Structure prediction request, 592 residues.
Amino acid sequence: MSDHEYTPKSKAGKWFNDRLPLLTLGAHLTDYPTPKNLNYWWTFGGILTFCLLTQIITGIVLAMHYVAHADLAFASVEHIMRDVNYGWLIRYIHSNGASMFFLAVYIHIFRSLFYGSYKSPREVIWIIGLLIYLLMMAAAFMGYVLPWGQMSFWGATVITNLFSAIPLVGESITTWLWGAYSVDNPTLNRFFSLHYLIPFLILGLVVLHIWALHVPGNNNPVGIDIKKPSKDTVPFHPYITIKDTFALLMFMIIFAGFVFFSPNVLGHSDNYIPANPLVTPAHIVPEWYLLPFYAILRSVPDKLGGVILMFGAIFILFVLPWLDTSKVRSAVFRPIYRQFYWIFVLDVLMLGYMGAMPAEGIYLVLARVGTIYYFAHFIIVMPVVGLLEKTDPIPMSISEPVLTGGADPALARKDNEKI
Amino acid sequence: MSKEEKKVNRRDFLFTASYTIGAVGLGAVVWPLVHQMNPDKAQQALATTEVDVSQVEPGNSITVLWRGKPVFLKRRTQDEIAEARAVSMSDLPDPQKDEERVKDGKDEWLVMLGVCTHLGCVPLKDKGDYNGWFCPCHGSHYDVSGRIRKGPAPTNMEIPKYEFVDNNTIKIG
Prediction:
Protein backbone atom coordinates (compact mmCIF):
# COMPACT_ATOMS: atom_id res chain seq x y z
CA MET A 1 0.00 0.00 0.00
CA SER A 2 2.71 2.44 0.97
CA ASP A 3 4.70 3.79 -1.95
CA HIS A 4 7.75 4.73 0.03
CA GLU A 5 9.73 3.94 3.14
CA TYR A 6 8.99 6.23 6.03
CA THR A 7 11.06 6.76 9.16
CA PRO A 8 9.82 9.06 11.94
CA LYS A 9 12.26 11.82 12.82
CA SER A 10 11.95 11.70 16.62
CA LYS A 11 13.20 8.83 18.72
CA ALA A 12 9.84 8.45 20.47
CA GLY A 13 8.08 8.45 17.11
CA LYS A 14 10.37 5.73 15.85
CA TRP A 15 9.83 3.69 19.02
CA PHE A 16 6.07 3.89 18.63
CA ASN A 17 6.05 3.38 14.87
CA ASP A 18 8.10 0.20 15.21
CA ARG A 19 5.33 -1.18 17.43
CA LEU A 20 2.29 0.22 15.64
CA PRO A 21 3.02 1.87 12.28
CA LEU A 22 0.36 4.56 12.57
CA LEU A 23 2.84 7.25 11.57
CA THR A 24 3.62 5.33 8.39
CA LEU A 25 -0.11 5.27 7.66
CA GLY A 26 -0.28 9.02 8.31
CA ALA A 27 2.63 9.63 5.97
CA HIS A 28 1.01 7.47 3.32
CA LEU A 29 -2.24 9.43 3.57
CA THR A 30 -0.39 12.75 3.44
CA ASP A 31 1.79 11.92 0.46
CA TYR A 32 -0.77 9.74 -1.35
CA PRO A 33 -0.20 10.57 -5.03
CA THR A 34 -3.40 11.93 -6.52
CA PRO A 35 -4.12 12.69 -10.20
CA LYS A 36 -3.57 16.39 -10.71
CA ASN A 37 -6.61 16.80 -12.96
CA LEU A 38 -9.30 15.86 -10.41
CA ASN A 39 -12.25 18.24 -10.77
CA TYR A 40 -14.75 19.32 -8.14
CA TRP A 41 -16.89 16.22 -8.66
CA TRP A 42 -14.08 14.41 -6.86
CA THR A 43 -14.52 16.43 -3.67
CA PHE A 44 -17.62 14.52 -2.56
CA GLY A 45 -15.67 11.74 -0.89
CA GLY A 46 -14.45 14.23 1.66
CA ILE A 47 -17.89 15.83 1.89
CA LEU A 48 -19.44 12.41 2.57
CA THR A 49 -16.95 11.73 5.35
CA PHE A 50 -18.01 15.04 6.87
CA CYS A 51 -21.69 14.05 6.52
CA LEU A 52 -21.12 10.71 8.26
CA LEU A 53 -19.26 12.29 11.17
CA THR A 54 -21.93 15.01 11.48
CA GLN A 55 -24.67 12.37 11.69
CA ILE A 56 -22.75 10.33 14.25
CA ILE A 57 -21.98 13.32 16.50
CA THR A 58 -25.45 14.90 16.34
CA GLY A 59 -27.01 11.43 16.66
CA ILE A 60 -25.14 10.59 19.84
CA VAL A 61 -26.28 13.90 21.30
CA LEU A 62 -29.91 13.32 20.30
CA ALA A 63 -29.84 9.84 21.85
CA MET A 64 -29.07 11.52 25.20
CA HIS A 65 -32.52 13.13 25.11
CA TYR A 66 -34.66 10.84 22.99
CA VAL A 67 -36.87 8.08 24.47
CA ALA A 68 -37.45 5.03 22.30
CA HIS A 69 -40.94 4.12 23.49
CA ALA A 70 -44.17 4.26 21.51
CA ASP A 71 -45.90 6.35 24.21
CA LEU A 72 -43.01 8.75 24.80
CA ALA A 73 -41.04 9.04 21.56
CA PHE A 74 -43.13 11.75 19.91
CA ALA A 75 -43.16 13.87 23.06
CA SER A 76 -39.44 13.38 23.61
CA VAL A 77 -38.73 14.74 20.12
CA GLU A 78 -40.85 17.80 20.90
CA HIS A 79 -38.96 18.03 24.19
CA ILE A 80 -35.72 18.12 22.21
CA MET A 81 -37.16 20.85 19.99
CA ARG A 82 -38.49 23.06 22.81
CA ASP A 83 -36.65 22.35 26.06
CA VAL A 84 -33.19 20.97 25.37
CA ASN A 85 -30.56 23.68 24.95
CA TYR A 86 -29.88 23.99 21.23
CA GLY A 87 -31.92 20.79 20.79
CA TRP A 88 -33.71 22.34 17.80
CA LEU A 89 -30.38 23.05 16.13
CA ILE A 90 -28.95 19.61 16.71
CA ARG A 91 -32.12 17.86 15.54
CA TYR A 92 -32.43 20.02 12.43
CA ILE A 93 -28.78 19.36 11.58
CA HIS A 94 -29.41 15.63 12.02
CA SER A 95 -32.63 15.47 9.99
CA ASN A 96 -31.40 17.73 7.20
CA GLY A 97 -28.00 16.09 7.46
CA ALA A 98 -29.61 12.87 6.23
CA SER A 99 -30.82 14.66 3.10
CA MET A 100 -27.44 16.32 2.59
CA PHE A 101 -25.77 12.93 2.99
CA PHE A 102 -27.93 11.49 0.21
CA LEU A 103 -27.48 14.55 -2.00
CA ALA A 104 -23.72 14.08 -1.73
CA VAL A 105 -23.84 10.31 -2.22
CA TYR A 106 -25.94 10.64 -5.37
CA ILE A 107 -23.49 13.14 -6.85
CA HIS A 108 -20.66 10.78 -5.85
CA ILE A 109 -22.37 7.79 -7.52
CA PHE A 110 -23.27 9.67 -10.70
CA ARG A 111 -19.69 10.98 -10.91
CA SER A 112 -18.54 7.38 -10.79
CA LEU A 113 -21.02 6.45 -13.52
CA PHE A 114 -19.84 9.27 -15.81
CA TYR A 115 -16.11 8.75 -15.42
CA GLY A 116 -16.27 4.93 -15.27
CA SER A 117 -14.79 4.76 -11.77
CA TYR A 118 -16.60 1.46 -11.16
CA LYS A 119 -14.61 -0.32 -13.86
CA SER A 120 -11.56 -2.53 -13.52
CA PRO A 121 -9.53 -2.33 -11.36
CA ARG A 122 -11.94 -0.48 -9.05
CA GLU A 123 -14.89 -2.94 -8.88
CA VAL A 124 -14.38 -3.66 -5.18
CA ILE A 125 -14.38 0.04 -4.30
CA TRP A 126 -17.68 0.33 -6.19
CA ILE A 127 -19.24 -2.68 -4.45
CA ILE A 128 -18.19 -1.51 -0.99
CA GLY A 129 -19.64 1.88 -1.89
CA LEU A 130 -22.96 0.26 -2.81
CA LEU A 131 -23.00 -1.62 0.51
CA ILE A 132 -22.51 1.72 2.24
CA TYR A 133 -25.39 3.13 0.18
CA LEU A 134 -27.66 0.22 1.22
CA LEU A 135 -26.78 0.73 4.87
CA MET A 136 -27.41 4.45 4.49
CA MET A 137 -30.91 3.72 3.22
CA ALA A 138 -31.55 1.34 6.13
CA ALA A 139 -30.27 3.90 8.64
CA ALA A 140 -32.29 6.73 7.07
CA PHE A 141 -35.46 4.64 7.03
CA MET A 142 -35.12 3.59 10.67
CA GLY A 143 -34.18 7.11 11.72
CA TYR A 144 -37.31 8.43 10.06
CA VAL A 145 -39.40 6.03 12.17
CA LEU A 146 -38.00 7.25 15.51
CA PRO A 147 -40.08 10.47 15.94
CA TRP A 148 -43.16 8.17 15.86
CA GLY A 149 -45.29 10.55 13.82
CA GLN A 150 -47.84 9.49 11.23
CA MET A 151 -45.31 9.27 8.38
CA SER A 152 -42.92 7.39 10.68
CA PHE A 153 -45.53 4.82 11.56
CA TRP A 154 -46.99 4.31 8.11
CA GLY A 155 -43.65 4.48 6.37
CA ALA A 156 -42.49 1.71 8.69
CA THR A 157 -45.66 -0.27 7.99
CA VAL A 158 -45.33 -0.05 4.22
CA ILE A 159 -41.59 -0.79 4.11
CA THR A 160 -41.72 -3.74 6.53
CA ASN A 161 -44.71 -5.12 4.61
CA LEU A 162 -42.47 -5.31 1.52
CA PHE A 163 -41.03 -8.44 3.10
CA SER A 164 -44.49 -10.03 3.34
CA ALA A 165 -44.34 -10.35 -0.45
CA ILE A 166 -41.78 -13.16 -0.06
CA PRO A 167 -43.59 -16.46 -0.74
CA LEU A 168 -44.21 -18.84 2.20
CA VAL A 169 -42.04 -17.20 4.87
CA GLY A 170 -42.98 -13.57 4.18
CA GLU A 171 -45.54 -13.25 6.98
CA SER A 172 -43.23 -14.82 9.58
CA ILE A 173 -40.37 -12.53 8.54
CA THR A 174 -42.59 -9.47 8.87
CA THR A 175 -43.79 -10.51 12.34
CA TRP A 176 -40.20 -11.20 13.31
CA LEU A 177 -39.14 -7.74 12.14
CA TRP A 178 -42.00 -6.15 14.10
CA GLY A 179 -41.68 -8.17 17.29
CA ALA A 180 -45.45 -7.84 17.41
CA TYR A 181 -48.41 -8.35 15.11
CA SER A 182 -48.09 -4.85 13.68
CA VAL A 183 -45.62 -1.99 13.82
CA ASP A 184 -45.59 -1.31 17.55
CA ASN A 185 -43.40 -0.49 20.53
CA PRO A 186 -41.02 -3.46 20.05
CA THR A 187 -40.50 -2.30 16.45
CA LEU A 188 -39.60 1.22 17.54
CA ASN A 189 -37.27 -0.08 20.22
CA ARG A 190 -35.25 -2.29 17.88
CA PHE A 191 -35.18 0.33 15.13
CA PHE A 192 -33.54 2.70 17.58
CA SER A 193 -30.96 0.08 18.49
CA LEU A 194 -30.15 -0.64 14.84
CA HIS A 195 -30.24 3.03 13.87
CA TYR A 196 -27.48 3.60 16.41
CA LEU A 197 -25.48 0.62 15.15
CA ILE A 198 -25.52 1.17 11.40
CA PRO A 199 -23.45 4.39 11.24
CA PHE A 200 -20.57 2.55 12.85
CA LEU A 201 -20.89 -0.26 10.32
CA ILE A 202 -20.79 2.40 7.63
CA LEU A 203 -17.69 3.89 9.23
CA GLY A 204 -15.99 0.49 9.03
CA LEU A 205 -16.97 0.12 5.38
CA VAL A 206 -15.68 3.65 4.68
CA VAL A 207 -12.28 2.54 5.94
CA LEU A 208 -12.40 -0.44 3.55
CA HIS A 209 -13.67 1.83 0.75
CA ILE A 210 -10.67 4.15 1.16
CA TRP A 211 -8.28 1.25 1.60
CA ALA A 212 -9.53 -0.31 -1.63
CA LEU A 213 -9.21 3.10 -3.28
CA HIS A 214 -5.60 3.47 -2.22
CA VAL A 215 -4.58 0.23 -3.92
CA PRO A 216 -5.13 1.31 -7.57
CA GLY A 217 -5.34 5.02 -6.72
CA ASN A 218 -7.95 7.52 -7.86
CA ASN A 219 -9.61 7.38 -11.24
CA ASN A 220 -9.58 10.79 -12.93
CA PRO A 221 -11.63 12.78 -15.46
CA VAL A 222 -9.56 11.45 -18.38
CA GLY A 223 -10.04 7.93 -17.06
CA ILE A 224 -6.59 6.64 -18.00
CA ASP A 225 -4.13 4.74 -15.86
CA ILE A 226 -1.37 6.93 -14.52
CA LYS A 227 2.00 6.22 -13.07
CA LYS A 228 2.30 7.26 -9.47
CA PRO A 229 4.02 9.16 -8.22
CA SER A 230 4.79 11.04 -11.45
CA LYS A 231 4.32 14.45 -12.99
CA ASP A 232 0.67 13.46 -13.43
CA THR A 233 0.13 13.35 -9.67
CA VAL A 234 0.23 15.69 -6.71
CA PRO A 235 0.51 14.77 -3.04
CA PHE A 236 -2.85 14.50 -1.27
CA HIS A 237 -1.75 17.10 1.26
CA PRO A 238 -1.88 20.05 0.80
CA TYR A 239 -3.27 20.02 -2.75
CA ILE A 240 -6.36 17.83 -2.35
CA THR A 241 -7.02 18.65 1.30
CA ILE A 242 -7.28 22.36 0.46
CA LYS A 243 -9.49 21.76 -2.56
CA ASP A 244 -11.72 19.38 -0.57
CA THR A 245 -11.97 21.91 2.25
CA PHE A 246 -13.05 24.66 -0.14
CA ALA A 247 -15.73 22.40 -1.67
CA LEU A 248 -16.83 21.35 1.81
CA LEU A 249 -17.29 24.99 2.82
CA MET A 250 -19.51 25.59 -0.23
CA PHE A 251 -21.47 22.47 0.69
CA MET A 252 -21.84 23.63 4.28
CA ILE A 253 -23.36 26.92 3.08
CA ILE A 254 -26.15 24.97 1.36
CA PHE A 255 -26.46 22.68 4.38
CA ALA A 256 -26.75 25.65 6.74
CA GLY A 257 -29.26 27.24 4.38
CA PHE A 258 -31.59 24.30 4.89
CA VAL A 259 -30.98 24.05 8.64
CA PHE A 260 -31.55 27.74 9.38
CA PHE A 261 -34.00 28.90 6.72
CA SER A 262 -36.17 25.94 5.70
CA PRO A 263 -35.51 23.06 8.09
CA ASN A 264 -38.80 21.32 7.32
CA VAL A 265 -38.98 21.78 3.57
CA LEU A 266 -37.70 18.26 2.87
CA GLY A 267 -39.97 16.63 5.46
CA HIS A 268 -43.70 15.98 5.60
CA SER A 269 -46.06 17.94 7.81
CA ASP A 270 -47.97 14.70 8.57
CA ASN A 271 -45.03 13.60 10.68
CA TYR A 272 -45.92 16.28 13.22
CA ILE A 273 -49.09 14.27 13.94
CA PRO A 274 -48.50 11.50 16.52
CA ALA A 275 -48.63 7.96 15.14
CA ASN A 276 -52.15 6.54 14.89
CA PRO A 277 -52.53 2.87 13.90
CA LEU A 278 -56.20 3.43 12.95
CA VAL A 279 -55.73 6.13 10.32
CA THR A 280 -53.42 6.05 7.32
CA PRO A 281 -52.48 9.49 5.93
CA ALA A 282 -54.13 10.16 2.58
CA HIS A 283 -50.83 10.43 0.73
CA ILE A 284 -47.90 8.35 1.89
CA VAL A 285 -44.60 9.40 0.38
CA PRO A 286 -41.10 8.36 1.40
CA GLU A 287 -38.29 10.86 1.79
CA TRP A 288 -37.11 12.41 -1.48
CA TYR A 289 -33.99 10.26 -1.72
CA LEU A 290 -36.02 7.05 -1.97
CA LEU A 291 -38.62 8.32 -4.44
CA PRO A 292 -37.21 6.76 -7.65
CA PHE A 293 -37.30 3.31 -6.06
CA TYR A 294 -40.77 3.96 -4.70
CA ALA A 295 -41.91 4.85 -8.22
CA ILE A 296 -40.50 1.55 -9.48
CA LEU A 297 -42.31 -0.35 -6.71
CA ARG A 298 -45.63 1.23 -7.56
CA SER A 299 -45.27 0.92 -11.31
CA VAL A 300 -45.72 -2.86 -11.13
CA PRO A 301 -49.35 -4.00 -10.68
CA ASP A 302 -48.20 -7.06 -8.72
CA LYS A 303 -47.04 -7.12 -5.11
CA LEU A 304 -44.13 -9.55 -5.38
CA GLY A 305 -43.14 -8.25 -8.81
CA GLY A 306 -42.99 -4.68 -7.55
CA VAL A 307 -40.83 -5.64 -4.60
CA ILE A 308 -38.47 -7.69 -6.78
CA LEU A 309 -38.08 -4.88 -9.28
CA MET A 310 -37.47 -2.31 -6.56
CA PHE A 311 -34.70 -4.32 -4.94
CA GLY A 312 -33.47 -5.31 -8.41
CA ALA A 313 -33.02 -1.64 -9.27
CA ILE A 314 -30.35 -1.44 -6.57
CA PHE A 315 -28.82 -4.89 -6.96
CA ILE A 316 -28.27 -4.45 -10.68
CA LEU A 317 -25.74 -1.79 -9.74
CA PHE A 318 -23.60 -4.49 -8.12
CA VAL A 319 -23.01 -6.22 -11.48
CA LEU A 320 -22.59 -2.96 -13.39
CA PRO A 321 -18.79 -3.37 -13.73
CA TRP A 322 -19.47 -6.53 -15.74
CA LEU A 323 -22.40 -5.18 -17.73
CA ASP A 324 -20.33 -2.31 -19.08
CA THR A 325 -18.33 -3.76 -21.98
CA SER A 326 -16.43 -0.61 -22.91
CA LYS A 327 -12.68 -0.57 -22.42
CA VAL A 328 -12.72 3.21 -22.13
CA ARG A 329 -13.50 4.50 -18.65
CA SER A 330 -14.33 8.18 -18.99
CA ALA A 331 -17.51 9.24 -20.81
CA VAL A 332 -15.49 12.23 -22.02
CA PHE A 333 -14.21 9.94 -24.80
CA ARG A 334 -17.47 8.05 -25.30
CA PRO A 335 -19.72 10.20 -27.52
CA ILE A 336 -22.63 7.74 -27.63
CA TYR A 337 -22.56 6.55 -24.02
CA ARG A 338 -22.33 10.17 -22.89
CA GLN A 339 -25.77 10.87 -24.39
CA PHE A 340 -27.30 7.76 -22.86
CA TYR A 341 -25.76 8.79 -19.53
CA TRP A 342 -27.68 12.06 -19.52
CA ILE A 343 -30.89 10.33 -20.62
CA PHE A 344 -30.40 7.99 -17.66
CA VAL A 345 -29.93 10.93 -15.30
CA LEU A 346 -33.17 12.45 -16.60
CA ASP A 347 -34.90 9.08 -16.28
CA VAL A 348 -33.95 8.77 -12.59
CA LEU A 349 -35.07 12.36 -11.93
CA MET A 350 -38.36 11.67 -13.69
CA LEU A 351 -38.87 8.48 -11.65
CA GLY A 352 -38.24 10.52 -8.51
CA TYR A 353 -40.94 12.98 -9.53
CA MET A 354 -43.39 10.17 -10.35
CA GLY A 355 -42.70 8.62 -6.93
CA ALA A 356 -43.96 11.81 -5.31
CA MET A 357 -47.13 11.93 -7.44
CA PRO A 358 -50.20 9.73 -6.93
CA ALA A 359 -49.92 6.38 -8.74
CA GLU A 360 -52.64 6.93 -11.33
CA GLY A 361 -53.27 8.17 -14.86
CA ILE A 362 -50.37 9.70 -16.76
CA TYR A 363 -48.06 9.51 -13.71
CA LEU A 364 -48.39 5.75 -13.61
CA VAL A 365 -47.77 5.44 -17.36
CA LEU A 366 -44.65 7.59 -17.16
CA ALA A 367 -43.42 5.69 -14.09
CA ARG A 368 -43.75 2.45 -16.08
CA VAL A 369 -41.86 3.86 -19.05
CA GLY A 370 -39.20 5.18 -16.65
CA THR A 371 -38.89 1.81 -14.92
CA ILE A 372 -38.46 -0.07 -18.19
CA TYR A 373 -35.85 2.44 -19.34
CA TYR A 374 -34.01 2.23 -16.00
CA PHE A 375 -33.42 -1.48 -16.48
CA ALA A 376 -32.86 -1.19 -20.24
CA HIS A 377 -30.03 1.25 -19.53
CA PHE A 378 -28.12 -1.41 -17.63
CA ILE A 379 -29.17 -4.56 -19.46
CA ILE A 380 -29.19 -3.28 -23.05
CA VAL A 381 -27.50 0.12 -23.38
CA MET A 382 -24.42 -0.59 -21.27
CA PRO A 383 -23.32 -3.85 -22.95
CA VAL A 384 -24.36 -2.92 -26.50
CA VAL A 385 -23.00 0.63 -26.62
CA GLY A 386 -19.75 -0.58 -25.11
CA LEU A 387 -19.31 -3.04 -27.99
CA LEU A 388 -20.47 -0.87 -30.91
CA GLU A 389 -19.32 2.61 -29.95
CA LYS A 390 -16.37 4.23 -31.71
CA THR A 391 -14.62 6.07 -28.93
CA ASP A 392 -12.64 9.29 -29.31
CA PRO A 393 -8.83 9.13 -29.17
CA ILE A 394 -7.55 8.82 -25.62
CA PRO A 395 -4.57 10.86 -24.44
CA MET A 396 -1.37 9.07 -23.48
CA SER A 397 -1.13 10.87 -20.17
CA ILE A 398 -2.89 13.49 -18.10
CA SER A 399 -0.24 16.03 -19.05
CA GLU A 400 -0.76 15.55 -22.79
CA PRO A 401 -4.14 17.26 -23.24
CA VAL A 402 -2.97 20.10 -21.04
CA LEU A 403 0.25 20.64 -22.94
CA THR A 404 -1.03 20.18 -26.49
CA GLY A 405 -4.30 22.00 -26.00
CA GLY A 406 -3.39 25.68 -26.16
CA ALA A 407 -0.39 25.53 -23.87
CA ASP A 408 3.01 26.79 -24.94
CA PRO A 409 4.57 24.17 -27.28
CA ALA A 410 7.99 25.19 -26.05
CA LEU A 411 6.93 24.08 -22.61
CA ALA A 412 5.83 20.74 -24.00
CA ARG A 413 9.20 20.16 -25.63
CA LYS A 414 10.96 21.10 -22.46
CA ASP A 415 8.75 18.73 -20.54
CA ASN A 416 9.45 15.92 -22.96
CA GLU A 417 13.17 16.48 -22.78
CA LYS A 418 13.07 15.97 -19.06
CA ILE A 419 11.71 12.47 -19.61
CA MET B 1 -9.15 -49.11 0.39
CA SER B 2 -5.48 -48.52 0.85
CA LYS B 3 -3.78 -48.12 4.23
CA GLU B 4 -3.08 -44.44 3.57
CA GLU B 5 -6.72 -43.60 3.08
CA LYS B 6 -7.55 -45.27 6.39
CA LYS B 7 -5.04 -43.05 8.17
CA VAL B 8 -6.69 -40.00 6.63
CA ASN B 9 -10.12 -41.24 7.62
CA ARG B 10 -9.34 -41.08 11.32
CA ARG B 11 -8.42 -37.42 11.01
CA ASP B 12 -11.40 -36.81 8.73
CA PHE B 13 -13.66 -38.14 11.43
CA LEU B 14 -12.18 -35.74 13.98
CA PHE B 15 -12.56 -32.81 11.60
CA THR B 16 -16.13 -33.68 10.72
CA ALA B 17 -17.07 -34.29 14.34
CA SER B 18 -15.48 -31.01 15.45
CA TYR B 19 -17.15 -29.00 12.71
CA THR B 20 -20.51 -30.64 13.42
CA ILE B 21 -20.35 -29.97 17.15
CA GLY B 22 -19.15 -26.46 16.38
CA ALA B 23 -22.04 -25.85 13.98
CA VAL B 24 -24.61 -27.16 16.47
CA GLY B 25 -23.09 -24.99 19.19
CA LEU B 26 -23.13 -21.95 16.92
CA GLY B 27 -26.73 -22.62 15.98
CA ALA B 28 -27.69 -22.98 19.64
CA VAL B 29 -26.18 -19.57 20.32
CA VAL B 30 -27.61 -17.86 17.24
CA TRP B 31 -31.19 -19.10 17.66
CA PRO B 32 -31.92 -17.23 20.94
CA LEU B 33 -30.45 -14.12 19.36
CA VAL B 34 -32.79 -14.48 16.38
CA HIS B 35 -35.86 -15.67 18.27
CA GLN B 36 -35.75 -12.82 20.81
CA MET B 37 -37.04 -10.60 18.01
CA ASN B 38 -40.29 -12.57 17.62
CA PRO B 39 -43.40 -11.33 19.49
CA ASP B 40 -42.83 -11.72 23.23
CA LYS B 41 -45.20 -13.12 25.85
CA ALA B 42 -46.69 -9.71 26.55
CA GLN B 43 -47.48 -9.21 22.87
CA GLN B 44 -49.02 -12.67 22.63
CA ALA B 45 -51.15 -11.95 25.70
CA LEU B 46 -52.94 -9.18 23.82
CA ALA B 47 -54.22 -11.71 21.34
CA THR B 48 -57.97 -11.52 22.12
CA THR B 49 -60.38 -8.59 22.32
CA GLU B 50 -64.12 -8.58 23.12
CA VAL B 51 -66.26 -5.99 21.37
CA ASP B 52 -69.77 -4.85 22.23
CA VAL B 53 -71.60 -4.31 18.94
CA SER B 54 -75.11 -3.58 20.24
CA GLN B 55 -74.90 0.10 19.24
CA VAL B 56 -74.05 -0.50 15.59
CA GLU B 57 -76.92 0.27 13.19
CA PRO B 58 -77.27 -1.59 9.86
CA GLY B 59 -75.11 0.10 7.21
CA ASN B 60 -72.64 1.37 9.82
CA SER B 61 -69.34 0.02 10.98
CA ILE B 62 -66.94 0.38 13.87
CA THR B 63 -63.20 -0.07 14.03
CA VAL B 64 -61.39 -1.61 16.97
CA LEU B 65 -57.73 -2.22 17.59
CA TRP B 66 -56.67 -5.85 17.88
CA ARG B 67 -52.99 -6.82 18.11
CA GLY B 68 -52.12 -3.28 17.06
CA LYS B 69 -54.14 -3.62 13.88
CA PRO B 70 -57.53 -2.14 13.09
CA VAL B 71 -60.44 -4.58 12.74
CA PHE B 72 -63.50 -3.42 10.81
CA LEU B 73 -66.84 -4.66 12.15
CA LYS B 74 -69.45 -3.76 9.56
CA ARG B 75 -73.15 -4.43 9.97
CA ARG B 76 -74.27 -4.70 6.40
CA THR B 77 -77.72 -3.91 5.00
CA GLN B 78 -79.66 -6.54 3.05
CA ASP B 79 -78.89 -4.61 -0.16
CA GLU B 80 -75.17 -4.76 0.55
CA ILE B 81 -75.30 -8.48 1.25
CA ALA B 82 -77.22 -9.05 -1.97
CA GLU B 83 -74.69 -6.97 -3.87
CA ALA B 84 -71.77 -8.93 -2.41
CA ARG B 85 -73.41 -12.25 -3.34
CA ALA B 86 -74.30 -11.20 -6.87
CA VAL B 87 -70.66 -10.87 -7.89
CA SER B 88 -69.44 -13.48 -10.35
CA MET B 89 -66.42 -15.47 -9.16
CA SER B 90 -64.65 -14.79 -12.46
CA ASP B 91 -64.54 -11.07 -11.61
CA LEU B 92 -62.50 -11.72 -8.48
CA PRO B 93 -58.68 -11.79 -8.49
CA ASP B 94 -58.84 -13.86 -5.27
CA PRO B 95 -62.11 -15.81 -5.71
CA GLN B 96 -63.99 -16.30 -2.47
CA LYS B 97 -67.74 -16.41 -1.85
CA ASP B 98 -69.22 -13.82 0.48
CA GLU B 99 -70.74 -16.73 2.45
CA GLU B 100 -67.22 -17.95 3.27
CA ARG B 101 -66.32 -14.56 4.72
CA VAL B 102 -69.11 -14.37 7.32
CA LYS B 103 -70.52 -16.66 10.01
CA ASP B 104 -73.58 -18.77 9.19
CA GLY B 105 -76.75 -17.00 10.28
CA LYS B 106 -74.79 -13.79 10.96
CA ASP B 107 -74.71 -12.67 7.35
CA GLU B 108 -74.96 -9.02 8.20
CA TRP B 109 -71.71 -8.96 10.18
CA LEU B 110 -68.51 -8.62 8.22
CA VAL B 111 -65.55 -8.81 10.60
CA MET B 112 -62.19 -8.36 8.94
CA LEU B 113 -58.71 -6.97 9.44
CA GLY B 114 -58.74 -3.38 8.22
CA VAL B 115 -55.36 -3.88 6.68
CA CYS B 116 -54.66 -3.65 2.98
CA THR B 117 -53.01 -6.88 1.86
CA HIS B 118 -50.62 -4.93 -0.34
CA LEU B 119 -48.41 -3.07 2.11
CA GLY B 120 -50.48 -2.78 5.27
CA CYS B 121 -52.20 0.61 5.08
CA VAL B 122 -55.71 1.11 6.47
CA PRO B 123 -58.25 1.35 3.62
CA LEU B 124 -60.89 4.09 3.71
CA LYS B 125 -64.54 3.00 3.99
CA ASP B 126 -67.29 3.85 1.47
CA LYS B 127 -64.70 4.72 -1.14
CA GLY B 128 -63.40 3.20 -4.34
CA ASP B 129 -65.07 1.83 -7.44
CA TYR B 130 -66.81 -1.13 -5.75
CA ASN B 131 -68.83 0.44 -2.96
CA GLY B 132 -66.48 -0.96 -0.34
CA TRP B 133 -63.02 0.20 0.71
CA PHE B 134 -60.20 2.02 -1.03
CA CYS B 135 -56.57 2.02 0.04
CA PRO B 136 -55.08 5.49 -0.41
CA CYS B 137 -51.48 4.29 -0.39
CA HIS B 138 -51.25 2.44 -3.67
CA GLY B 139 -54.80 2.43 -4.96
CA SER B 140 -56.33 -0.97 -4.15
CA HIS B 141 -60.14 -1.22 -4.43
CA TYR B 142 -62.11 -3.63 -2.24
CA ASP B 143 -65.79 -4.52 -2.59
CA VAL B 144 -68.55 -4.61 0.01
CA SER B 145 -67.32 -8.02 1.13
CA GLY B 146 -63.73 -6.75 1.55
CA ARG B 147 -62.55 -8.67 -1.51
CA ILE B 148 -59.83 -7.23 -3.72
CA ARG B 149 -61.19 -6.06 -7.07
CA LYS B 150 -58.60 -3.73 -8.56
CA GLY B 151 -55.07 -2.58 -7.70
CA PRO B 152 -51.79 -4.10 -6.48
CA ALA B 153 -53.11 -5.97 -3.39
CA PRO B 154 -52.80 -9.71 -3.99
CA THR B 155 -55.56 -11.07 -1.73
CA ASN B 156 -58.86 -10.19 -0.03
CA MET B 157 -58.75 -8.46 3.32
CA GLU B 158 -58.12 -11.09 5.95
CA ILE B 159 -60.85 -12.49 8.17
CA PRO B 160 -59.47 -12.91 11.71
CA LYS B 161 -60.50 -15.74 13.99
CA TYR B 162 -63.58 -14.53 15.87
CA GLU B 163 -66.78 -15.79 17.46
CA PHE B 164 -70.06 -14.47 18.80
CA VAL B 165 -70.00 -14.75 22.58
CA ASP B 166 -73.66 -13.69 22.57
CA ASN B 167 -75.84 -11.72 20.14
CA ASN B 168 -74.17 -8.42 20.98
CA THR B 169 -70.60 -9.41 21.73
CA ILE B 170 -67.89 -10.47 19.32
CA LYS B 171 -64.65 -11.96 20.58
CA ILE B 172 -61.76 -11.44 18.19
CA GLY B 173 -58.75 -13.72 18.41
